[in-house]
Amino acid sequence: MKEIEIKDKQKYLDENYIFEDIPEVSDRKRCLHCGEIIVVGNYKVYANEQGDEYIYCPNAPECDGTIIDWMDV
Ligand SMILES: [Zn+2]
Question: Domain of life here (predicted)?
């Protein structure tokens, strides 16, 4: 997995968030994998060998939670 640097984090979220109700980068969520409350805008993006990009928990790579693991607080 290779980390991708995202310059405009809100724009990236708007274009790549897979659910409705796109969060703001200032929103807080609880990551179910590491249990921490995270600030959405601190997310990280990793690409797999096929080049598919995934939005990960800010605590990646220690935490393997992705946006589907984030719950409203
Ligand atoms: Zn996490």
Answer: Bacteria
pLDDT digits (tens, 9 = 90+) for 20-65: 889 999 999 999 999 999 999 999 999 999 999 999 999 999 999 9
Q: How far is the CA of 49 from the centre of ligand 1 (A)?
A: 22
Helices (H), ranges, 1-73: 9-16
Please state the domain extents for the chain: 2-72
Gap from CA of 50 to ligand 1 centroid (Å): 23
57 alpha carbon – ligand 1 mean position (Å): 5
Joined tokens for residue 8: 């405009």
Cα–Cα distance for residue pair 33/55, rounded to 1 Å: 14
* Residue 72 Cα to ligand 1 middle (Å): 13
Asked if residue 2 has pLDDT above 90, the reply is yes
